[in-house]
């Protein structure tokens, strides 16, 4: 059963200026208790600034930070029940693993025995208890990151803020740590606000993703919503690969409408997000995996209905799938991901093959052409 959503952290009308530079623009965001929420966006869009505002290292120019219904905008970082894990995990190099994790509890003035119990409980959670006497330089980067996690949650924060915590790790380890972090988050029941500019990571780990661009939240939703129903071109292009065709609305019916794409006639389902009107320009968006490709044996024959004619420009073999880049007669470069089966000669492709390209009916996303 779905857990009920209880708001824990709320950002209301947050604006942040650095001098004359508006870095965050009227951000409204509610993070639910126990949620894994990711801020995803390109470099410089304001992700770290937003985290620092939640942590209390920055003050908003306008707006409020609210935790558990109470405003905390004026509170210093150590009184916010929030902890941060940074990209450079910044363990104290001259301290053992134990002392690194114990640091926060010692600052709080806890007794020796209690500290010991808590530190080992935390180290156990990240499977690092055998390493308690090691120094950070004697650990792998993944192990260091785990110790940093233990140090961050030992004070029982309500919210953990994680600023690209895995970006220093190599690809393989990053993927392992993604799963580990996600499990740890479930296990601890702590709310995570996670920052990344890696869209795959965001989709893989999050309950919800907020896509940021130039200080604005472009869209917030589940990974599936963000990927399958992007609200605008920025989100569509930033989150995964997408093909965008220009279309023109020529006739509007009750449930569908007629449009021309690359000179071909299409009848498409009406979008629910905006009203299509005759004469309007639209974008027809399709993910590479939604494209349907078939080889053309007789190039003289006309393309079938709802298909564009094209030529394979290049291809990348990926094992289970193959990525095709197809130059269409209408001048688009279409990316299509197809399952690969070496036993089926009809789907063994080569550069310069002539193909028909269409897509799985109703899987297109229609956006107004801004
Ligand atoms: N202390 C500061 N003083 C002035 N400008 C700042 C300050 N901190 C950040 N900025 C500016 O605010 C904008 C947002 O920066 P921020 O660090 O939040 O981006 P980011 O999304 O975290 O980027 P990245 O993915 O590169 O880490 C940038 O234009 C940056 O130059
Ligand atoms: Mg940053």
Task: Report on the architecture of this protein.
By secondary structure, the chain is of the alpha+beta class. The protein folds into 2 domains: 7-238, 3-Layer(aba) Sandwich (Rossmann fold), CATH 3.40.50.300; 243-368, Nucleic acid-binding proteins (OB fold (Dihydrolipoamide Acetyltransferase, E2P), Beta Barrel). The protein has helices at residues 47-55, 97-108, 112-125, 141-153, 171-188, 199-205, 223-228, 233-238, and strands spanning 7-18, 21-32, 36-40, 62-67, 70-71, 82-85, 159-163, 191-196, 208-213, 216-221, 243-252, 256-261, 264-269, 281-286, 291-295, 308-317, 321-328, 333-339, 354-359, 365-368. A 6-stranded mixed beta sheet has the order 6-7-8-3-9-10, with helices on both faces. Strands 13-12-11-14-20 form a 5-stranded antiparallel beta sheet, with no helix packed on it. Strand 17 (321-328) and strand 18 (333-339) form a beta hairpin. Helix 2 crosses helix 3 (112-125), helix 2 (97-108) runs parallel beside helix 4 and helix 3 crosses helix 4. The protein starts with 6 loop residues before the first strand and ends with a strand. The structure holds adenosine-5'-triphosphate (ATP) and magnesium ion (MG). Adenosine-5'-triphosphate is lined by residues 18, 23, 41, 43-49, 197.
């Amino acid at each position: 059963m779905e857990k009920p959503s209880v708001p824990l952290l709320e950002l209301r009308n947050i604006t942040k200026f650095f001098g004359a530079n508006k870095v965050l623009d009227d951000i409204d965001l509610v993070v639910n208790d126990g949620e894994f929420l990711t801020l995803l966006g390109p470099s410089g869009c304001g992700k770290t600034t937003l985290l620092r505002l939640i942590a209390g290292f920055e003050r908003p120019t306008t707006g409020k930070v609210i935790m558990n219904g109470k405003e905390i905008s004026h509170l210093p970082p150590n009184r916010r029940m929030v902890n941060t894990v940074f990209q450079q995990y910044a363990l104290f190099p001259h301290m053992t693993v134990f002392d690194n994790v114990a640091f926060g509890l010692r600052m709080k003035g806890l007794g020796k025995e209690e500290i010991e119990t808590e530190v080992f409980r935390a180290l156990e959670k990240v499977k690092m208890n055998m390493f308690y006497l090691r120094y950070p330089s004697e650990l792998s980067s993944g192990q260091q990151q785990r110790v940093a996690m233990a140090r961050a949650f030992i004070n029982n924060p309500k919210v953990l803020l994680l600023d690209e915590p895995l970006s220093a790790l190599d690809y393989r380890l990053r993927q392992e740590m993604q799963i580990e972090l996600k499990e740890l988050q479930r296990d601890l029941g702590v709310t995570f606000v996670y920052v990344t500019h890696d869209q795959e990571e965001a989709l893989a780990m999050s309950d919800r993703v907020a896509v940021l661009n130039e200080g604005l939240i472009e869209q917030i939703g589940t990974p599936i919503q963000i990927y399958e129903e992007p609200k605008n071109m920025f989100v569509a292009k930033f989150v995964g690969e997408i093909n965008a065709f220009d279309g023109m609305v020529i006739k509007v019916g009750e449930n569908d409408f007629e449009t021309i794409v690359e000179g071909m006639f299409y009848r498409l389902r009406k979008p629910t997000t905006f009203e299509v009107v005759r004469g309007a320009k639209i974008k027809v968006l399709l993910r590479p995996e939604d494209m349907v490709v078939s080889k053309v044996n007789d190039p003289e024959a006309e393309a079938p209905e709802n298909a564009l004619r094209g030529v394979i420009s290049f291809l990348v073999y990926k094992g289970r799938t193959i990525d095709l880049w197809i130059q269409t007669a209408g001048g688009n470069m279409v990316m299509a991901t197809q399952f690969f089966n070496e036993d089926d000669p009809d789907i063994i492709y080569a550069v310069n093959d002539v193909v028909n390209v269409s897509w799985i009916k109703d899987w297109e996303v229609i956006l107004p052409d801004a």
